[in-house]
Amino acid sequence: MNPRPRPFLDDQTPEPDLDALYAAPSEMIQKAVLDRLVDFHEAYLAQATFFCLATGSEQGLDASPRGGPPGFVHVLDAHTVAFADWPGNNRIESMRNLRRDERLAMVFLFPGLELFLRINGRGRVSTDAGLLNELREGERVPKTATVVRIDEVLLHCGKAINRARLWQDSARLARDALPTVGQMMAALGRRADAEAELGTDQIAQIDAHYDHAVRHELY
């Protein structure tokens, strides 16, 4: 199939006048952007169970999901929060990025609620024993933590949630609606070696292992 021409990707395309297209934010919205946490921010963080972390470096940008029990992001003071690093895919791009560029952004989602909490700031990876002990979950102590110095904190409207119908049961995907992890691993194997082929039983084993690990091997 021939690719469709995409003139909007042409470097010669004039940049749009964004100020002409969009109204300025209201005074209330501008006043809602603070450089420190206040009581209602802390109330939301005490209930937060999920956020996406954005970092970058000269090599590019990265976004990483983070989750935990309510309050897993700890408020250290009005200008500082911290969170533990728990096992994932071991690419640890976020921490590697922060060693080169300390800027980061956090976007928190609150299941059932129609708003976001955003934090923009600067982060550093810490192995301070006292901090790691504070961030422990049960008997589990993390290897590292990220400490965030807040530059901006704001609440963001949840229109995107309603456009996505994110919290509606009707928006939930059936487990067989998309390729499984096993099926994707089989496809990746074929890309690397056209002769490679995983059988149905092998794919099922990969799926079963993933389903167990993603639910039970959390730490």
Polypeptide structure, described:
The chain has 219 residues and is of the alpha+beta class. The protein has eight helices and seven strands. Helix 7 (181-192) crosses helix 8 (200-216). The mean pLDDT is 93.
In brief:
The protein is an alpha+beta fold and 219 residues long.
Strand tally is 7
Mean pLDDT: 93
Largest sheet: 7 strands, antiparallel
Low-confidence sequence ranges = none
Work out the radius of gyration: 21 Å
**Fraction of helical residues:** 25-40%
Strand order of the largest sheet: 2-1-5-6-7-4-3
- Give the distance, in angstroms, between the N- and C-terminal Cα atoms: 45 Å
Compute the number of helices.
8
Helix/strand order: HHHEEEEHEEHEHHH
Structural class: alpha+beta
* Amount of beta strand: 25-35%
List strands and helices in order, with pairings:
Blueprint: H1 18-21, H2 27-31, H3 39-47, E1 50-57, E2 60-67, E3 74-77, E4 80-84, H4 93-100, E5 103-109, E6 115-126, H5 129-134, E7 145-157, H6 159-164, H7 181-192, H8 200-216
Helix pairs in contact: 7-8
